[in-house]
Amino acid sequence: MFTADIENRGLVLDPRTKLAVMITLVVFALGGTGSDIAAVRVGTVALSALPIVLLATAKQWKKAVSFGAVYAVLKAAELLLVPKLTGIALSLLGLCCMIFVRLMPSLIMGTYMLSSTTVSDFIAAMHRMHVPQQITIPLSVMFRFFPTVIEEFAAINTAMKMRDIRIGGKNAEKFIEYRLVPLMVCSVNIGSELSAAALTRGLGVRVRRTNICKIGFHLQDIAVLLMAASLYVLWILGIMEVIK
Question: Which of the residues 98, 127, 183, 205 has the least number of beta carbons within 10 Å of its own beta carbon?
Answer without folding.
Answer: 205
